Predict the structure.
Amino acid sequence: MNKIFVCNIDELEEGEALKVDCGVNGIDALAVFNSQGNFFAMNDRCSHGNASMSEGYLEDDGTVECPLHAARFCLKSGKAMCMPATDPIQTFPVVIEDDALYVDMA
Ligand code: FES
């Protein structure tokens, strides 16, 4: 397993996001979210353009809105839920070990 350390679990509060350097599988950075106490990770780069999803807006329906053109993506699947984006964003499992958060790049 190729794990990227994110932070300690109590450093990512509910409704917050973190950008984490990655450098694995051609992915420069990851966006890691705490949505209603659940953790999610995706490629930080929007599938539509050059926007950082960690600067996006978490919605109560389990999506994140891109800060640039307001496309929304499912946190779990990465699916584009509305225009202008049509392509998904790759998502990754989040692993918790000893109160630390990791993203599993497999
Ligand atoms: Fe994200 Fe356009 S860059 S919707």
User: Anything to note?
Assistant: Residues 43 and 55 are 12 Å apart (CA to CA). The chain has one domain: 3-104.
